[in-house]
Recover the amino acids of this structure.
């Protein structure tokens, strides 16, 4: 038998028991007559002790063991003199009387410790060693638990998990497709799903009124820290529902995960209109862990001779409470921050609310005390508050102020990763104008239904049509998004036309779906959650790579298996492809 117990479970109550453990040598310490080894497995660490006096041969052997050797030991559990109460097994040790080396190990290229000395690239190359570290093991365990709790909850609500194919044709979610050449159909390609969108809608037509799936999706996009070319969604769809039904159902799932995984009871999620989110937070994924709402100032700020305000489409500010004592240097830093190219503001106007009730601002020349007071009132500002104002073109200014709000939130310690503020954003615009292509794109995807009240505006003022679409946002992160779908062929055709598809193009790409709509498609809607992001949020990390067992790097490469890589000429021939790099 290779083990009777794991390295994480033996306690003082097991004293004097004879056990066999197997695991990896975390570290070895020689203290005169004694050698101690920390033996590690998935469950924890147990201290082994070898005594030079009573068993010199065994002790010699133990001293020769290198880091990460795999060993099997048998011995008796003894009470430790120096107890380590930080360790679950810290009250006991194993007095070893038999040792077997199951396998040796080269010296690992970095230390298998919480504070490892290995850089990210190296750890990715040896991911199997990196995965031995606690932080990764804890993250993967969390991921497993979240998947299990999701399945439990969805099952309890009558949802069934149904697998949909990976070799399909394009599903437009706004990214490029990964394609797979077909050997049996020369010159033809499958696309990997950007999501199971069309299939889950077909399942609704088929009458499976509550579907979900924890599923891989593939999108060929430029990568960022929170993007991977393949990622996992909790994908869901329901029939005979309106927006509120979907939000209620999945608020239930979110609350279940908060409760079972985080031990938190969270309040009902606020539902904020998209237009209000943009107006008050400058973002469709506001971080509600703190308030600091935007206040628009066009009325009180314009017409005082200050050109920057007078010529701006929007003058808007926030109140950083308690920051009235900011120094010149701190204010300059904030100005530098908003001027960074990625933020894009031209400058920053401040009003300090002094403790004596007077004001000091960067626009004193144009605004007297009376007028500054009027501005400050809009924010309900108190003495020692600091008002920060940006001005310019509406959308850009809102975006810049959103960044400044987040920056101030961070500086003021208002973005505690252990506090969670979920909310729904509802009623997104249906379409987005794309300057480059000079046409409308679906903001969510082309299967999203416009709001019934807005149907009549589709052809004349498409830009103003609202969609029956919603996002779940937690702490400024978009965790999920979905919509009520179009289930009528004519409306779907109108939608494709708006998006610039010819009738033939729409028919050849999505005819299968529109045809299905002609056979009794029920009203339906759904949502998909970014599972990796949700796990990362609960794990308290910014990068989804930390919660994926074998992630790809920023260039979309798996540096461990060295993929993507070239394939042989024979393989190329088989799939009817020829590569000529000189062309
Ligand atoms: N398929 C959509 C997405 O991947 C989600 C949905 O509309 O249900 O974002």
């Amino acid at each position: 038998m290779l083990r009777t117990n794991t390295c994480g479970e033996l306690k003082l109550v097991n004293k004097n028991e004879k056990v066999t453990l197997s695991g990896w040598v975390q570290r070895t310490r020689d203290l005169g007559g004694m050698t101690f080894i920390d033996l590690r497995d998935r469950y924890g660490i147990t201290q082994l002790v070898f005594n030079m006096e009573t068993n010199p041969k065994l002790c010699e052997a133990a001293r020769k063991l290198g880091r990460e050797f795999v060993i099997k030991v048998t011995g008796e559990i003894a009470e430790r003199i120096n107890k380590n109460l930080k360790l679950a097994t810290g009250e006991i040790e194993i007095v070893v009387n038999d040792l077997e080396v199951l396998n040796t190990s080269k010296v690992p290229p970095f230390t298998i410790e919480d504070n490892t000395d290995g850089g990210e690239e190296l750890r990715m190359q040896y991911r199997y060693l990196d995965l031995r570290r606690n932080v990764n093991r804890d993250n993967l365990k969390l991921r497993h638990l979240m998947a299990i709790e999701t399945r439990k909850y969805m099952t309890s609500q009558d949802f069934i998990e149904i697998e949909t194919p990976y070799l399909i044709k394009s599903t437009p979610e706004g990214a490029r497709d990964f394609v797979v050449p077909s050997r049996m159909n020369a010159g033809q390609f499958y696309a990997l799903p950007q999501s199971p969108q069309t299939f889950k809608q077909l399942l609704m037509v088929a009458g499976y009124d509550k579907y979900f799936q924890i599923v891989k999706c593939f999108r060929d996009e430029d990568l960022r820290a929170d993007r991977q070319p393949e990622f996992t969604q909790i994908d869901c769809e329901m029939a005979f529902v309106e927006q509120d039904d979907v939000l209620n159902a999945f608020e239930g799932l979110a609350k279940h995960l908060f409760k079972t995984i985080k031990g938190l009871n969270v309040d009902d999620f606020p539902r904020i209109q998209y237009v209000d989110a943009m107006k008050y937070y400058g973002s469709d994924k506001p971080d509600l862990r703190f308030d600091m709402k935007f206040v628009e100032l066009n009325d009180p700020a314009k017409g005082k001779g200050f050109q920057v305000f007078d010529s701006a489409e929007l003058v808007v500010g926030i109140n950083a409470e308690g920051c009235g004592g900011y120094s010149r240097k701190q204010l300059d830093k904030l100005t530098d921050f908003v001027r960074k190219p990625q933020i894009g503001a031209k400058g920053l106007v401040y009003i300090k609310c002094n403790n004596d009730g007077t004001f000091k601002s960067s626009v004193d020349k144009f605004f007297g005390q009376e007028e500054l007071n009027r501005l400050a009132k809009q924010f309900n500002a108190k003495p020692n508050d600091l008002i920060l104002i940006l001005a310019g073109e509406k959308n850009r200014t809102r975006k810049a102020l959103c960044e400044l709000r987040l920056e101030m939130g961070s500086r003021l310690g208002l973005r505690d990763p252990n506090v969670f503020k979920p909310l729904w954003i509802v009623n997104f615009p249906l379409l987005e104008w794309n300057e480059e292509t000079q046409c409308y794109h679906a903001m969510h995807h082309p299967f999203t239904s416009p709001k019934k009240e807005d149907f009549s505006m589709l052809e004349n003022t498409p830009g103003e049509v609202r969609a029956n679409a919603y996002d779940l946002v937690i702490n400024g992160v978009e965790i999920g998004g979905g919509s009520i779908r179009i289930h009528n062929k004519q409306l779907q055709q109108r939608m494709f036309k708006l998006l610039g598809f010819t009738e033939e193009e729409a028919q050849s790409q999505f005819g299968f779906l529109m045809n299905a709509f002609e056979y009794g498609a029920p009203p339906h809607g759904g949502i998909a959650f970014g599972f990796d992001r949700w796990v990362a949020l609960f794990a308290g990390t910014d990068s989804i790579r930390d919660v994926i067992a074998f992630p790809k790097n920023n260039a979309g490469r798996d540096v461990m298996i060295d993929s993507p890589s070239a394939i042989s000429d024979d393989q190329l021939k088989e799939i009817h492809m020829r590569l000529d790099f000189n062309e």
Summary: Residues 12-103 form a domain with the OB fold (Dihydrolipoamide Acetyltransferase, E2P) fold (CATH 2.40.50.140). The first strand starts at residue 18 and ends at 31. The chain has three domains: 12-103, 136-272+422-569, 290-411. The longest helix spans residues 134-156.
